[in-house]
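Exam revision sheet. Question 4 asks you to relate a sequence to its structure. Input first:
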Amino acid sequence: MARTVDRAAHAARRGEFLDAFQRLVATKGYEKASTQDVLSEVGASRGSLYHYFGSKRELLDALVERSVAASVSQLGELIADDSLSATDKLNRFFASLADWKTQRREVVVEAMRIRRSDENALVNQAMRTMSVERIAPLLAEIVERGVREKAFTTAHPAQTGRILIGLIGDLDAALFDLFFAVESGAAEHAEVERTVAAYTSAFERVLGAADGTITLVAPSVLRSWFSGKEKGDQQ
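Answer key, structure tokens:
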């Protein structure tokens, strides 16, 4: 008689391994995290882990897939909502990304400390590759709608999605660099605002959108991340 697989239990157990691996990558870095570390975190046998993942690289691929899938799901819902304009879809997407990071602030900050090192070069590359493959086409679909609505004037909407992914990733890295720089007193909040303004302007130029129509990072989000971060403001 064939063995019946409890799909819910299988998914939950798989998620436990991924959660443990994500914590390890955030605190130790991908290169230093080992499958034995994962087993110790979960309290499982090696055979149990290999029932779900054949190697550390498979764990990485699954972790990246899970992270990107959340953005893909969000974009899919926005694309399907015909009540929203293309501009609204993009702005809501950026707001949801910011909200996700803010809710997980401590984990995100620690992960970025590690991701900025060479130890996580593979993680960064895997994330970028999958983002281009999965998210860029969805952004392009929104851009194409914006062109039809005459909100955007880009002549190359299909290629614009990939360009936007590049800008989003670069802004993300720049803001985290500034987060640590402001914290150490090497930069001031005004530089953060200038950086966001510059990327927002570039984003609007790529889209061919009117000035002030795109909000990559809301001022309230910047305040929540950077308020009191200047070295002189710390107690």
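Marking note for examiners. Residues 157-184 form the longest helix (28 residues).
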